[in-house]
Amino acid sequence: MGRKSKYSADFKLMIIHEAETLGITRTSRLYSISDHTIRTWKLIYKYQGIQGLEPTHSNNTYSKEYKASLVEEYQKSDEKL
């Protein structure tokens, strides 16, 4: 089962605009949302637009075969974590 977003894209956008007017700290206190969350929403909106603020309702799931192929590729490469 996927996760449910607490906030809609419209609400996030409203918070972003409010933060531009009132400032991030004041807006975060007014709506009880962390400064970090508002800054994150601003960055997402800047680079991805309103679509980036849309809630996602599913976690990514990968098959065992796909995971195994990634591990195999990693082991063949010279990359380190």
TrEMBL record:
Superkingdom per UniProt: Bacteria
GO MF term set: DNA binding; transposase activity
A Pfam short name: HTH_Tnp_1
GO terms under biological process: DNA transposition
Record-linked InterPro entries: Homeodomain-like_sf, Transposase_8, WH-like_DNA-bd_sf
Protein name in the entry: Helix-turn-helix domain-containing protein
Protein's organism: Ligilactobacillus ruminis DSM 20403 = NBRC 102161
